[in-house]
Each structure stands twice: as C-alpha cells, then as structure tokens.
Amino acid sequence: MSPLTRIEQHIERISQLHPWYTDLLAKQGLDPQTCQLAELPLITSDILEKHYFTNKARTEADLSVYRTSGTSTGIRKAIYYSPEDDECYIEAKTACFREWLAATRTTEQQPAAIHKALADMGTGHAANTAMLIFDRLGLQADSISFALPIEEHIAKLASTRPELLYTMPSILDAIAAHSRNPRDYGIKRIILVGEIAPPHWQSNMADRFGIEPHHILDTYGSIEIGAIASYSHSHDLYIIADGIHAEALPAEQIDERFEPLQQNEAVLVLTSYVRTLFPAIRYVTYDVVRDFQSIAIDGRERQGFSCISKRIGTDLKHGEKISLYDIESVVHEFVSDAALRVSLRHNKLAIHIQSKSLSDEMLVHIQHAIEHKVGEIGQMIQNRMLDSITVTRAADDEQLERGAVKAKKLYF
Fold first, then answer.
1. Could you report the per-residue pLDDT of 321-342, keeping only the tens digit for each?
2. Nearest 5°: CA angle at 141, between 140 and 143?
3. Same domain, yes or no, for 125 and 140?
4. FRET partner for 54 with CA separation of 20 to 30 A, picked from 37, 80, 116, 354?
C-alpha cells in the first residue's frame, strides 16, 4: 500500500476529531483516498453552524477555548485548540516575529536594540499568547488591557518605554491621537494584528512614531485558523504562512446569493495542515483579497495577496460592497493623522474623521475622492442603493464609537 498523501493524512486526522466530516464526504460521494483538494466540500458558515458550533463542549484534556468577537451576530462562539494547535500557533508567530526583527536589523547601519516589548491589544488568542511569544524571543515583556482608558495606555508607554509595541491599529490610532509627541516613547518596532492597516496608514503612522514603514509588521490571522499571513514591504504582499494552502474563489462559487466581485478580487479559502481541533479543510474565511498570486521567495514558491479589501456575508446588506480598506486609504492621502469611523444607516454612508490637520475644505475633497476612487461606492450612489455619503469632522476630545474589541468596522 502506498503511503498516504499529505491531504489524505489531514482528512484522516480531521475525520477522527470531527466525525461529521466523514459523513459530509460520504453524502457527496467522495472517497478521501482518491479525491483532490479542490474536490472537497467548502467549509462554509452554514456547515460550521450545523456541525461545529453546537452546544456540546469538547472533553479532551488540556484544551484551550477562545471565543469569536461576535461583531456581526452579537453571539460569541467557542473555538477549541489542542496543546498541539496552540504550540503550532505560538511557534509560527515566534518564527515570523524573529525573522522580521532579524531582517530589519540587517538592513540598518545602526540596528535598533530591541529588549523590551509591550502587548496592548484586545482579547482572544493573539492577546493570550503574546507574553509567551515575547519570552521565546528573549524579550522583557509587559501587557496592558485594551479596556483601560487611553490615559492609562499613555502612562504605561511612558513608564515602560518598550522598543517593541504589539497592538491593534485602532489602539495605535488612539495612542497617537492622545500623545503630545508619539516619538517620545522610544518605540522602534510595531507589530499589528486584528484590523486593516493600509500602506498609506502604515506610512503615516510610522512617520508619527519616528520610524520607517518597514519597521511596522502587519499580521493577519483568525481564531479559527491561527496565524495566516504577514505583510512583506519588499514584495508589497501579505505572504501566507507555512503549513497553510490558500485558494481564491469567486464569491458566487461560495454562495449563489453573492454578487460577483471585482476582477482582481476573490474570497480567501484556507486549508491548514497544522490545525486539528478546527476543521480547516477548505475553510471559507469570507474575507475578500486582491491580487492573489504565487511568487518565488528565496527559491520557494509562496502564496500571497496585496490586501484584504472587505468581508462579505449574507447578513451584511449592502455592507459587502463597501471596503473600509479603500475608504481609509483615500482619507490618509489627505490627512496623516486620521482616525475614522464608518457607518451605514438608512442607506446613508457616513465617514466621521478625527484629525488635528483636517480642514473644512478637505472634507469636500475627501467626499469627492471616496465617491470617485472607490468604484463600488460611486456605483451604489448612481444606482440609488446609497442615498448619500457624508464626511464629517469629530471633535478632538470626542470618544469615537467602538465595537466589541475592534473599532475598525462598518457600523450599522
């Protein structure tokens, strides 16, 4: 008997841990020993609701349980990690951070010394594992809860003066906005997780902290999969992590209710060979990526994409047509210190911007640019799916609307 292929081994393991997956294959007449990856069923939200997100808790020993943010449905769902899953995630993040830190040191004539790190982020997997990752990197580490007032974040940075800050983009926005001079903290490297961070935004933020754009590492992951990709400034792509195979599929192939995407856009579908207590075989992320491609890096074929433009879903109404990535990119072409909230209410799109450098005249130019540079928004206005778009200024001391953990989201 010939040895099992990689996908056969993974199907066998997933079927042992998730017996319903075997039934799913059988109902579709698929033989695990002969079918190709592209023939396997897509793991959609409907399948997960029916089989994975049940009230029955797993009983294996030493499990970690994390919960989704529930930002679209309001319901937080349990995601399980085995000790092996946790170790694979921690090792993947550690290796990614170590490689990036080493690469930025070798490109500097006077490399920055990185000894202290601060984790300042939300809840969940990334936050819970940050301290262990820093320990493996040999860094003196501390953390602060995202739920504390921004004044306490500022005080923590001033007292600890970390060279490396691990945080979310919206928290970094708040830190920069409430600091007299963000450069005073002595931060030399920034790692981001959890929200969009367009290149214009990254470049503006790097300037405010007195570092170079490549001193910011933007990472992409999810509780379901773990570490997925990180941004490479030298390739202008998010590079998919080892152990993960990605596919980019048309939206209508995922669900016939979805409208076709732009020509260079597709829905990201992932198969993780290092994840077991989640059925990560052709898992549909519902994240829309642009310019998906394979490239050679150091003699190895790697997969990548230029950005995550938006997220689609059957419960988002017109929200699936609106790209926060594009809106923020346009705004940061005009102002370098903008924090913004985007809401869709009664078919009216509102962009609320907090910025010390924003003039009243700019509001009109930003509105015009969004309507003309973001194709879907202009088309929705033309087709009367959107009644209007408004761009307004937030007061310097205004508390911008926050979602559960994440602030960079479309507010309905």
1. 788 899 999 999 999 999 999 9
2. 165
3. yes
4. 37
